[in-house]
Amino acid sequence: MTILFDLEPILKGDRRAIARAATLVENRRGDALLSQLFPHSGRALILGITGAPGAGKSTLVDRLVANFRADGKRVAAIAVDPSSPFTGGAILGDRIRMMQHHADDGVFIRSMATRGAMGGLAAATADMTLLFDAAGFDVVIVETVGVGQDEIDVARLATVTVVVLVPGMGDDVQAIKAGLMEIADLFVINKADHPGAERLEREIHYADIAVPVLKTVASEGKGIDELVQAVRAVPGQNRAEERWKRRMREMLRERVMEKLSWEELDLAAADVATRRRDPYTLIHDLVERFFAGKPARISD
């Protein structure tokens, strides 16, 4: 039987209702709710902030929140943190540096634990952006955990993806060439008052990366207005079909894995490792059993 949720408190921006819904989503029990909320989504700017640890992403996000609020926009920020090895929860919790916004009803900050998810994003992050979108937030900022080039998953859900670099780390451009260049809509050289900022900018241009490069000193609020203007000027922000193609493939992959038994997969891996069975037949059998021998049809 389909569960019907009372959407009105969420759609009106009730913070307690949104917090309860966010907990459902993070615990992977929010599919029915999200299905009902989906028609109310699709209006928010989803801004992905990614880059290596130490680049100052969190300070940058804090300044962006303040800038959007000064323009009258309602802002939700999702901070994807490392998981505690003991509780599975987010180690950093609701970011202390953003506490200046805690009394602002136009700002909602949520920390999420990666819980082992790859790509710098928690498995439920995309669903969380949909929740905040439907709840009427104009901008949803997703700050990734900061694991380097593996963070390309942010592009699956972001309207605009900002890759944050910092001078003096030595391997930034190599990281760009390794994959981040494929997802960046904007590059930001943060801590641009540090030695090496000009050199880093030249290296980006020499790499023939056709992406705008901006400089900020987030700790001092410098360059934030220009960054917001650049975000709004990114062409092709209505690439919804392209983003949903990637996202639906990922959703299907996640849902299939959730239905399968990890214990059974471990046993199957042991059979493959000892050459008792081959992986191709095993995977074929699992897929056949999952769909009960019927082809998966999406449309009539």
Fraction of residues in H or I helices: 25-40%
Give the CA-based shape.
globular
Strand order of the largest sheet: 3-2-4-1-5-6-7
CATH topology of the largest domain, by name, is Rossmann fold
The profile of the biggest β sheet is: 7 strands, parallel
Question: What's the number of domains?
Answer: 2
What is the residue-mean pLDDT, rounded to a whole number?
A: 81
Top-tier CATH class of the largest domain: Alpha Beta
SSE sequence, one letter per element? HHHEHEEHEEHEHEHHHH
CATH architecture type of the largest domain: 3-Layer(aba) Sandwich
**Structure classification:** alpha/beta
Question: In angstroms, what separates the terminal alpha carbons?
Answer: 23 Å
Q: What's the CATH superfamily of the largest domain, by name?
A: P-loop containing nucleotide triphosphate hydrolases
Note the beta-strand portion. Answer: 5-15%
Contiguous runs where pLDDT drops below 50 for at least 5 residues:
83-96
CA radius of gyration is 21 Å
Number of strands: 7
Total of DSSP H or I helical runs spanning 4+ residues: 11
